Amino acid sequence: MQRIVISSIIVIVCTGIISCSSKKQQETSAVTSPTPLMVTTTKTGIVMVLIKGGEFMMGSSKYSNDEQPVRKVRVDSFWMDRFEVTQKAYNAITGKNPSKTRDPDFPVEQVSWYDAITYCNMRSIREGLKPCYNLETLECDFDADGYRLPTEAEWEYACRAGSSSEFTFGDKEDDLYRYGWYKRNSGGTPHKVGQLSPNAFGLYDMHGNVWEWCNDIYTNQYIADELVNPRGPKSGNKRVLRGGSWNSESMECRAAARHSENAKFADVCFGADAYGFRCVRKANGADDKKNN
Questions:
Q1: pLDDT exceeds 60 at position 29
Q2: Residues 101-129 pLDDT 10s
Q3: Left, alpha or beta for 205 (phi > 0: left; psi -120 to 50: alpha)?
Q4: Which of 54, 124, 228, 252 might form a disulfide with 248, Cβ 3.0–4.6 angstroms?
């Protein structure tokens, strides 16, 4: 009878261990085993991922006031560069490399918001697409089929990749080193793109490496009633950057964290060697089927 009881206890304990292990694997898979990706390579050789539209809670009530109000936002599907624009890719389109730390596979940096949208237009023209930006008025044509910078909502949605935590992988700062180059692990310099783990949407370096320009004009609080494809205020002096960089503290790399800077640099200013970007392009049925 004693042997049967002991055997039963062993079975229960083992079952519990297996159950906990299975649960842990499921939790991990939410980050490290993303759903099948729809990926395409553009005519100029840039890899892009289709980000399926959906809803998410944008912002955070825990830190800065400019991350509020937190509200449920919906964004449509869009294509996004899988990696930050590299120096090689930027030079191939513009014939320039303004970066302080030179390496063709590193993200381009020391680019202003205006430099980034100029690249977007040039890349669009190179591929026979309609440019999104009027470089005189700085207005963006969201109906154009060319490249542009992501809206803040698109960027945060893509960074979160289905998560509601501080970072795409969870809330623990100690795990950031696996996903992004920041102050603690960068060695004081940006790094080659795509070297660390991607998020669940298959995007690399959404945390750290270089701050990424967004299309939006910066304001110190979100427009509360912009709930579908929000595009921010229509006027203002600064543009938004997201994601943190190689010289950022971990909290600056959070999915909801915001930064701002003037759209044009009079000179190369402090912090500019941490400013880069990635492009997006609107999605449509034809694109989805062609690249499925």
A1: no
A2: 999 999 999 999 999 999 999 999 999 99
A3: left
A4: 252
